[in-house]
Write a structure and sequence with these properties.
By secondary structure, the chain is of the alpha/beta class. Strand 8, helix 11 and strand 9 form a beta-alpha-beta unit. The protein contains 15 helices and 12 strands. The longest helix is centred in the N-terminal third of the chain and has 64 residues.
């Protein structure tokens, strides 16, 4: 008899093949059916287990898959944030080779952060330097205010005293003080203008034959009175083997040596200032020699050597209060020496003194060449310019009167024009040897007037006689055809020297 728990599929197969009686009477068949039935039942259980296992695997797979997707989204978000951070550091200019490489992105970000850190440090240093420069400029303006007001105070006060006293003796005494004050003011303004021109690269050196020995002797002589005010003496020592006849720019070299000697005088009391010239060698028509300015003054701390050659700087803050000065002299000296392809060397010791020196390599010549005798204005003898006809273009009545009086001292024939328009009309209707042209005037300025005159006449000398001077005005003036510049307040000897070029 077939058991009740026989598998349904097996049961259907048995009924098709065997009768119930046959099965009951056949014990071996019953045993076989029982074994087969167990196989069916086991297979069904395995299938059920497999199905359940598959279902569980699908669920686990989905869970893992969801987790992986979530992690990938997180990774993508992190990468996007890294990329944005890197681009922000570089103002969106960075180009990434592989945006999917997180390690590479992290390294780039690290590098960019380091670079930004360096830039910030540089900006901080630049800020400190800018603040220091502003402080230096503020100090400079304060010093300049003091330096300019001091001689102006003397000038204004002496004019008042001269009006009140009105005696010949007091007039002569006050005139000397007035002259000294105006010279100080003139030198001060010239320092500022020179520095401006050098900074703008507008200084061109001349190549003129001159006697270097004579130049140095004249400088020493011209500064003796100034040296005596501090009870100092000046001594000029020149090597017997020195070749004095050289070719260079005597005016600029004179300015260099004068600056150094004046500096030595200022910082020395009851001492000695020496100007020494030593011949080093001669080679291929080039003279190599050393110039030294030696004093036994207060000296300079070695830590301040570089500082004193910078613009607006002096060795100590108290220096400007105690000794005066703008802090431009040595800066100008260093820049002029640079133009001469050399540099200043300083040896100094506190309380012992200082030695400023430089070496020049200049072409030398025999004495049969014509020497330039007009080296420095204070040693220049003004020449009679009788017959020279000058058109003075100036809108300020006081400046016209002063210029007329100076020009007539040299027997110059002077015609005046109060602005550029009048100057152009007078130029058309008359003949002049030289035009002295102010630049800033009403109606028509000097630039436009010069351009109009140059449109028809390229030969007549036009000299700018102006208080307006900068690198831009110089460049503009040269472009429109100005021959030369004389800067107000002007030295009459300088004007005489420049007019002499055009005197026939």
């Amino acid at each position: 008899m077939i058991k009740e728990n026989i598998h349904r599929q097996l049961n259907r197969q048995i009924k098709k093949c065997f009768s119930e009686d046959f099965i009951i009477n056949n014990e071996a068949l019953q045993n076989f059916i029982e074994i087969v039935n167990l196989s069916y039942l086991n297979f069904e259980k395995d299938a059920e287990l497999f199905e359940q296992s598959s279902r569980l695997n699908d669920l686990e797979y989905n869970e893992i898959n969801q987790k992986l997707k979530s992690e990938l989204v997180k990774k993508e978000n992190i990468q996007n944030k890294l990329i944005q951070a890197i681009k922000q550091l570089n103002n969106n200019e960075i180009k990434l080779e592989d945006e999917n490489d997180s390690i590479n992105l992290l390294q780039i970000l690290r590098n960019e952060i380091e670079r930004k850190k360096e830039i910030q440090e540089q900006l901080f240093l630049a800020k400190l330097n800018a603040e220091k420069a502003n402080e230096a400029k503020s100090d400079f303006l304060s010093i300049m205010s003091h330096e300019i007001r001091t001689p102006l105070n003397a000038i204004i006060g002496l004019i008042y005293i001269m009006e009140k006293e009105n005696t010949l003796n007091s007039f002569q005494e006050n005139l000397e003080i007035l002259k000294y004050s105006t010279q100080n003011l003139y030198m001060l303004i010239n320092d500022i203008l020179d520095f401006n021109r050098i900074e703008a690269g507008k200084v061109n050196l001349e190549n003129i034959p001159f006697d270097f020995k004579e130049l140095v002797l004249n400088i020493g002589k011209s500064l003796e009175i100034k040296a005596s005010e501090n009870l100092n003496k000046i001594e000029v020592i020149i090597d017997d083997n020195f070749t004095p006849y050289v070719i260079s720019d005597p005016l600029r070299i004179s300015q260099i040596i004068t600056n150094l000697v004046s500096n030595a005088i200022k910082f020395t009391k009851n001492g000695l200032i020496q100007i020494k010239i030593d011949q080093i060698k001669q080679k291929d028509n080039i003279s190599v020699f050393k110039v030294q300015v030696i004093d036994n003054g207060i000296g300079i701390n070695t830590e301040k050597f570089k500082l004193i050659f910078q613009k607006f700087e002096q060795a100590e803050e108290k220096t400007s209060r105690q000794f005066g000065g703008t802090g431009l002299g040595l800066a100008i000296t260093k820049k002029l020496l640079y133009l001469l392809n050399t540099d200043v060397v300083l040896h100094s010791e506190i309380g012992i003194g200082s030695n400023f020196s430089f070496v020049l390599e200049l072409p030398f010549f025999s004495t049969n060449l014509e020497l330039n005798e007009s080296i420095v204005y204070h040693d220049y003898n003004e020449e009679n310019l009788e017959g020279l006809k000058v058109l003075l273009v100036e809108d300020n009545l006081i400046n016209i009167k002063i210029a007329e009086k100076i020009l007539k001292q040299w027997n110059v024939i002077v015609d005046t024009a109060e602005n550029g328009l009048v100057a152009v009309e007078k130029y058309k209707s008359s003949t002049y040897d030289v035009i002295l042209m102010d630049l800033l005037m009403p109606v028509m300025d000097g630039y436009e007037a010069t351009a109009k005159i140059r449109s028809t006449d390229s030969l007549i000398p036009i000299i700018a006689l102006t208080a307006t001077f900068s690198s831009d005005s110089l460049e503009k003036g040269i472009k429109i055809g100005l021959n030369d510049f004389v800067i107000k307040p002007f030295n009459p000897k300088e004007l005489n020297m420049k007019l002499k070029k055009y005197y026939k």
